[in-house]
Amino acid sequence: MSEPAKRKATYEDLFSIPENMTGEIINGELVVTPRPSRNHVETTSSLGYRLGPSYQFGEGGPGGWIILIEPEIGFGEDILVPDLAGWRRERYPKEEPHNWISVPPDWICEVLSPSTLRRDKVEKTPIYARHGVSYLWFIDPIAKTLDAFRLQDGDWVLAGVYMENDKVRTEPFIDIEINLSDLWLETRFRRPLEESTKE
Protein backbone atom coordinates (compact mmCIF):
# COMPACT_ATOMS: atom_id res chain seq x y z
CA MET A 1 0.00 0.00 0.00
CA SER A 2 1.43 3.36 -1.02
CA GLU A 3 2.01 6.05 1.59
CA PRO A 4 -0.23 9.13 1.49
CA ALA A 5 1.30 12.14 -0.24
CA LYS A 6 3.15 14.38 2.17
CA ARG A 7 1.50 17.76 2.70
CA LYS A 8 3.48 20.71 1.40
CA ALA A 9 4.39 23.25 4.01
CA THR A 10 2.80 26.68 3.78
CA TYR A 11 3.75 30.10 5.12
CA GLU A 12 1.35 29.64 8.04
CA ASP A 13 3.51 26.73 9.26
CA LEU A 14 6.30 29.19 9.98
CA PHE A 15 4.23 30.74 12.78
CA SER A 16 4.45 27.48 14.75
CA ILE A 17 8.22 27.46 15.20
CA PRO A 18 9.95 28.73 18.39
CA GLU A 19 11.15 32.32 18.41
CA ASN A 20 14.81 31.30 18.80
CA MET A 21 14.74 29.30 15.55
CA THR A 22 14.75 30.23 11.87
CA GLY A 23 12.15 28.67 9.60
CA GLU A 24 12.27 28.21 5.84
CA ILE A 25 10.21 26.31 3.28
CA ILE A 26 12.55 24.48 0.92
CA ASN A 27 11.11 22.31 -1.85
CA GLY A 28 7.80 22.16 0.00
CA GLU A 29 9.32 21.08 3.33
CA LEU A 30 9.39 23.10 6.55
CA VAL A 31 13.03 23.39 7.64
CA VAL A 32 13.79 24.71 11.12
CA THR A 33 17.32 25.61 12.25
CA PRO A 34 18.77 27.21 15.39
CA ARG A 35 19.71 30.87 15.32
CA PRO A 36 23.24 31.30 13.94
CA SER A 37 26.35 31.30 16.11
CA ARG A 38 28.05 34.47 17.32
CA ASN A 39 30.88 33.97 14.82
CA HIS A 40 28.35 33.61 11.99
CA VAL A 41 26.46 36.76 13.07
CA GLU A 42 29.68 38.76 13.37
CA THR A 43 30.68 37.92 9.79
CA THR A 44 27.20 38.66 8.42
CA SER A 45 26.93 41.96 10.31
CA SER A 46 30.45 43.07 9.36
CA LEU A 47 29.76 42.54 5.66
CA GLY A 48 26.43 44.33 5.92
CA TYR A 49 28.10 47.29 7.67
CA ARG A 50 30.79 47.37 4.99
CA LEU A 51 28.38 47.37 2.04
CA GLY A 52 25.61 49.49 3.53
CA PRO A 53 27.18 52.97 3.54
CA SER A 54 28.44 52.76 -0.05
CA TYR A 55 25.62 50.87 -1.71
CA GLN A 56 22.55 51.53 0.42
CA PHE A 57 23.26 55.14 1.38
CA GLY A 58 25.68 56.30 -1.32
CA GLU A 59 28.45 57.32 1.10
CA GLY A 60 31.69 56.79 -0.81
CA GLY A 61 29.93 54.58 -3.34
CA PRO A 62 27.20 54.55 -5.98
CA GLY A 63 24.17 53.89 -3.74
CA GLY A 64 21.06 52.52 -5.42
CA TRP A 65 20.72 49.27 -3.42
CA ILE A 66 18.55 47.91 -0.62
CA ILE A 67 20.59 45.46 1.49
CA LEU A 68 18.90 43.44 4.25
CA ILE A 69 20.07 40.93 6.84
CA GLU A 70 18.05 37.69 6.99
CA PRO A 71 14.99 38.77 4.97
CA GLU A 72 12.15 36.35 4.27
CA ILE A 73 11.91 35.99 0.49
CA GLY A 74 9.33 34.14 -1.57
CA PHE A 75 10.67 32.04 -4.43
CA GLY A 76 7.49 30.55 -5.83
CA GLU A 77 6.23 28.17 -3.12
CA ASP A 78 9.55 28.32 -1.27
CA ILE A 79 10.28 30.81 1.51
CA LEU A 80 14.01 31.24 2.04
CA VAL A 81 15.98 33.33 4.54
CA PRO A 82 19.47 34.08 3.19
CA ASP A 83 21.98 35.69 5.53
CA LEU A 84 22.19 38.81 3.34
CA ALA A 85 20.31 39.89 0.25
CA GLY A 86 20.46 42.96 -1.96
CA TRP A 87 18.08 44.48 -4.49
CA ARG A 88 18.74 47.27 -6.91
CA ARG A 89 16.46 49.96 -5.54
CA GLU A 90 14.21 50.16 -8.59
CA ARG A 91 13.36 46.44 -8.21
CA TYR A 92 12.59 46.46 -4.50
CA PRO A 93 8.85 46.38 -3.66
CA LYS A 94 8.07 49.23 -1.28
CA GLU A 95 4.85 47.76 0.11
CA GLU A 96 3.32 44.29 0.06
CA PRO A 97 0.33 42.76 1.87
CA HIS A 98 2.54 40.13 3.59
CA ASN A 99 5.79 39.98 5.53
CA TRP A 100 7.86 38.11 2.95
CA ILE A 101 9.38 39.85 -0.07
CA SER A 102 8.02 38.60 -3.37
CA VAL A 103 10.76 39.89 -5.71
CA PRO A 104 13.94 37.77 -5.94
CA PRO A 105 17.04 39.79 -5.02
CA ASP A 106 19.87 40.68 -7.38
CA TRP A 107 22.49 39.40 -4.92
CA ILE A 108 22.53 36.87 -2.10
CA CYS A 109 25.21 36.00 0.41
CA GLU A 110 25.09 32.83 2.47
CA VAL A 111 27.45 32.65 5.46
CA LEU A 112 28.23 28.97 5.85
CA SER A 113 28.23 26.95 9.05
CA PRO A 114 28.75 23.18 9.46
CA SER A 115 25.05 22.63 10.20
CA THR A 116 23.74 24.57 7.18
CA LEU A 117 26.47 24.15 4.56
CA ARG A 118 24.77 21.32 2.65
CA ARG A 119 21.39 23.05 2.69
CA ASP A 120 22.82 26.38 1.52
CA LYS A 121 24.93 24.88 -1.27
CA VAL A 122 22.87 21.91 -2.46
CA GLU A 123 19.23 22.73 -1.76
CA LYS A 124 18.93 26.52 -1.87
CA THR A 125 21.41 27.34 -4.66
CA PRO A 126 19.32 25.77 -7.49
CA ILE A 127 16.27 27.69 -6.25
CA TYR A 128 18.20 30.96 -6.45
CA ALA A 129 19.29 30.14 -10.00
CA ARG A 130 15.78 29.14 -11.08
CA HIS A 131 14.42 32.50 -9.95
CA GLY A 132 17.11 34.58 -11.62
CA VAL A 133 19.27 35.81 -8.73
CA SER A 134 22.22 37.35 -10.59
CA TYR A 135 24.98 37.03 -7.99
CA LEU A 136 25.65 34.59 -5.15
CA TRP A 137 28.39 34.67 -2.53
CA PHE A 138 29.38 31.95 -0.08
CA ILE A 139 31.40 33.09 2.91
CA ASP A 140 32.97 30.52 5.23
CA PRO A 141 34.07 32.18 8.50
CA ILE A 142 35.84 29.00 9.64
CA ALA A 143 37.91 28.53 6.48
CA LYS A 144 38.02 32.34 6.01
CA THR A 145 37.02 32.21 2.35
CA LEU A 146 34.69 34.01 -0.05
CA ASP A 147 33.47 32.29 -3.24
CA ALA A 148 31.65 34.63 -5.64
CA PHE A 149 29.40 33.39 -8.46
CA ARG A 150 27.42 35.03 -11.24
CA LEU A 151 24.41 33.51 -12.99
CA GLN A 152 25.05 32.87 -16.69
CA ASP A 153 22.51 31.10 -18.92
CA GLY A 154 20.86 29.59 -15.86
CA ASP A 155 24.07 28.18 -14.37
CA TRP A 156 26.41 29.46 -11.68
CA VAL A 157 29.81 30.55 -12.99
CA LEU A 158 32.66 31.16 -10.57
CA ALA A 159 33.63 34.84 -10.57
CA GLY A 160 36.34 34.68 -7.92
CA VAL A 161 37.76 32.84 -4.92
CA TYR A 162 39.27 34.86 -2.07
CA MET A 163 40.65 34.01 1.35
CA GLU A 164 41.91 35.27 4.71
CA ASN A 165 43.11 38.89 4.33
CA ASP A 166 42.61 39.36 0.57
CA LYS A 167 41.47 42.76 -0.65
CA VAL A 168 38.38 42.06 -2.75
CA ARG A 169 36.54 43.86 -5.54
CA THR A 170 34.04 41.47 -7.04
CA GLU A 171 30.62 41.50 -8.67
CA PRO A 172 28.26 43.12 -8.07
CA PHE A 173 30.13 45.37 -5.61
CA ILE A 174 33.21 46.36 -7.57
CA ASP A 175 33.19 50.04 -6.59
CA ILE A 176 34.67 49.44 -3.15
CA GLU A 177 37.44 47.27 -1.77
CA ILE A 178 36.51 44.80 0.95
CA ASN A 179 39.28 43.67 3.27
CA LEU A 180 38.26 40.10 4.09
CA SER A 181 40.09 40.24 7.41
CA ASP A 182 37.39 42.70 8.56
CA LEU A 183 34.89 39.84 8.41
CA TRP A 184 36.67 37.45 10.78
CA LEU A 185 35.96 37.97 14.48
CA GLU A 186 39.26 36.57 15.73
CA THR A 187 41.24 38.78 13.33
CA ARG A 188 39.47 41.92 14.53
CA PHE A 189 40.12 41.01 18.18
CA ARG A 190 43.83 40.52 17.51
CA ARG A 191 44.21 44.09 16.21
CA PRO A 192 45.37 46.84 18.58
CA LEU A 193 42.42 48.88 19.87
CA GLU A 194 43.89 52.05 18.37
CA GLU A 195 43.83 50.51 14.89
CA SER A 196 40.25 49.22 15.29
CA THR A 197 38.91 52.64 16.29
CA LYS A 198 40.36 54.20 13.13
CA GLU A 199 38.26 51.96 10.83
Automatic annotation (TrEMBL):
Annotated source species: Desulforhabdus amnigena
Listed name of the protein: Putative restriction endonuclease domain-containing protein
InterPro entries: Nuclease_put_TT1808 (IPR012296), Restrct_endonuc-II-like (IPR011335), Uma2 (IPR008538)
Domain Putative restriction endonuclease: from-to ranges: 19-179
Gene3D superfamilies tied to this protein: tt1808, chain A (3.90.1570.10)
A Pfam family this chain is assigned to: Uma2
